[in-house]
Amino acid sequence: MINVCCRAIAQLRACRPIPEPQVRELCYKAREILIEEGNVVSVHAPVTICGDIHGQFHDLMELFRVGGDVPDTNYLFMGDFVDRGFYSLESFLLLLCLKVRYPDRITLIRGNHESRQITTVYGFYDECIRKYGSANVWRYCCEVFDYLALGALVLGATTDVPPAASDNENTQSTLPPEDEEVESEVLNANGDILSKTLRRRFAGLSMMSHHTNSSRISPAPDVDVPSPPDHPASSLPLQSSPSSQSLFTPPTSTTGAVLCVHGGLSPLIETVDKIRLIDRKQEVPHEGAMCDLLWSDPDEIEGWGLSPRGAGFLFGADIVRHFNHNNDLSLVARAHQLVMEGYKEMFDKTIVTVWSAPNYCYRCGNVAAILELGEDGSNGGCIARANGDQGRREPVGTDGSEGGSGVLWNLASPGRRYRVFEAAPQGTRGMPAKKPVGEYFL
Ligand SMILES: [Mn+2]
């Protein structure tokens, strides 16, 4: 299978479809691998998180050029591999081949377009008919869709941005002073740093660490911690007293996990463990928890709202904040929405949209992004919990005690490096396949 796979990878990399019997074998093998994965796959950093691809094969090649090849780079693709673009088939089959060949190096989760109904309307079905003359390959792929995981949990990501692998003069000269931690960094396709954000420092931290009695204490009168400008007190988690601002989650080395889903949250899902209970091996339903995970969007509202998409929900900052708090998450990473800058952090960086299809539909003019999470080196130290998950809960309450509503959980978000890239140059693309098969004219 490995040899067959390598040949298929080479052929697909050249953007040439593989023969139908090979697709059948590939899909069978892929299903065997995917069936073993839970609804929420555990992935260890370092990992590069990618959003929608939508059949833009040449841009997927550009993504690998910018982000590194499999298996040198670990990847997590958050769905919507197919539809809209001209090369859904080649894009999806290549990713599937890579999954079969390097199952631990690449994670594929399901998007709302990985569905029989949606692909029939938005192009993948027609593409399969055009390229094979029958719906067989489309059917094989749809059977794989039903086995794709619904989410992934990234563990062991570092809180600061590790130095880029290929440090050049430019990078060296822009390294921050030693006492400043880079929280996020934006790079272009050449690896030049476009911008970066330093982690906010909390003046109350050293004072806090000396207190041993209660999480509800007020800071000493001489400790004055201004509210950071993009951090209004009203958005602080479960805090009401103005004086509690200085107790806000301080930056430390222990990280919360990152939940990756295609769309977003669901009013029917309060915990990550609840996602694990879904029977996912089916066509995407029109409503319910599974549907919401693949269809929902964050929005500037309070609570839940109706989605204009007609499936899933809109959810506000309060929903994300509570969900992250209850599940020891530091970040939700999702895709599903075109963002012109390639990525968009919302709600005080508790959720990010990553979009990986540059110049979407070959006309939107947007750039694309991928999100790199580095490892914190603690991977060996994870403790398995009773439910098979990794222990992530680390109290940073001022008294260090577990539980209690006043305890703040240590969820400094991971350092985030975004690589922003443009569409592949025109010269690297073939024209859309126009060669009709015989049946096309019948
Ligand atoms: Mn989508």
From TrEMBL:
As for family, the record states: Belongs to the PPP phosphatase family.
Q: Name one GO biological process term.
A: regulation of TORC1 signaling
Please name the PROSITE patterns in this protein's record: SER_THR_PHOSPHATASE
Biased composition (Low complexity) is annotated at 232-251
A Pfam family matched by this chain, by name?
A: Metallophos
Tell me the keywords, alphabetical order.
Answer: Hydrolase, Manganese, Metal-binding
> Which range is the signal sequence, renumbered to this chain?
none
User: Can you say what this protein is called?
Assistant: Serine/threonine-protein phosphatase
**Which SMART domains does this entry report, sorted A to Z?**
PP2Ac
Q: Which organism is it from?
A: Capronia epimyces CBS 606.96
EC numbers on record: 3.1.3.16
GO cellular component annotations of the record:
nuclear periphery; protein phosphatase 4 complex
For this protein, the record's CDD domains field holds: MPP_PP2A_PP4_PP6
Q: Which reaction does it catalyse?
A: O-phospho-L-threonyl-[protein] + H2O = L-threonyl-[protein] + phosphate
EC category name: hydrolase
Q: InterPro entries of this UniProt entry?
A: Calcineurin-like_PHP, Metallo-depent_PP-like, PPA2-like, Ser/Thr-sp_prot-phosphatase
